[in-house]
Amino acid sequence: MPSPAFERPEQIRELFDRIAPHYDALNQTLSLGLHQVWKRMAVRWSGAAAGERVLDLCCGTGDLALQLARRVGRGGQVVGLDFSPAMLAIAQRRARQLFPDYSLEWVLGDALALPFPDGSFDAITMGYGLRNVTDIPQALREICRVLKPGRRAAILDFHRPRGIPFLESFQRWYLNSWVVAQAKALGLAAEYAYIDPSLDRFPSGEQQQQMALQVGFSAAKFYPLAGGMMGVLLVAR
Ligand SMILES: C[S@@+](CC[C@H](N)C(=O)[O-])C[C@H]1O[C@@H](n2cnc3c(N)ncnc32)[C@H](O)[C@@H]1O
Question: Distance, CA 178 to ligand 1 centroid (Å)?
Answer without folding.
Answer: 22
